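Bug #77: duplicate submission created two jobs. Keeping one. Sequence:
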Amino acid sequence: MDALAVREEARRLLELVPEEDLSTVSRMLRGLVTGGYDPILASLDMAPEDDEPVSPEESEQMRRGMETAARGEVIANADFWRKHDRAVDG
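Kept job's structure:
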């Protein structure tokens, strides 16, 4: 497939993307266009590591959350907020 045909296919596919996923697609494309450089991610990479101690309660919550995720008992953020009648920010 030549470059023009690939671009046309990409445009057609973009029209099929659900509205709630457009911001994700936009971030992905922006990353490709800018060579993957994201100033926010770069600043997070340079930020000092969080050295605040974790309480036993927080540690237990994290353990339970990781177990839940490992079992696949998760839902997408957009689905969660839609279920709880909240707007999803892009």
